[in-house]
Amino acid sequence: MTIAEMLEQSGVLALLGMGMVFCFLIIMIVAVTFMGKVIHALGADKDPGVPAGGGSSVPVSGAGNNAAVTAAISAAVNEYRKGK
C-alpha cells in the first residue's frame, strides 16, 4: 500500500467519522426540540409552586440588605484566605 492510498483511505475515514458525528448531533437537536414541544404541550414545564403571575410570592430584597448573608460570605472568604 502506497502513501497516496493510505492518505486517501485516512481522508475517507476522517470524513466518514465527521459525517457520523454531524448526523448524530442533528438527530439529537431534533429529539431535544421535539421533547421540549411535547413537554410544553402537556403543561409539564409549569412549576406548581409559582403563582399565575410568574413572580415569586416572597419579595426579593436588594443586594447587600441582608446582614446575615453578608456576614456568612465574609466569614467564608476569610476562611478560604487563611487556608492558602
Spell out the blueprint of helices and strands.
Elements: H1 3-42, H2 67-83
Distance between the termini: 59 Å
Total beta strands? 0
- List the total number of helices: 2
Q: What does the main sheet amount to? A: none
Helix content: 55-70%
Mean pLDDT value = 86
Q: Strand-and-helix sequence, N→C?
A: HH
Range of strand content: under 5%
* Radius of gyration of CA atoms, rounded to a whole number: 27 Å
| SSE class | mainly alpha
Overall shape: it is flat
- Uncertain segments: none
Question: Explain this structure to me?
Answer:
It is a single chain. The protein is mostly helical and 84 residues long. It has a domain at 20-44. It is 68% helix and 0% strand. It has two helices and no strands. It has helices spanning 3-42, 67-83. The protein is flat, with a radius of gyration of 27 Å.
Features:
single chain; 84 residues; mainly alpha; 68% helix; 0% strand
Short description:
By secondary structure, this protein is mainly α.
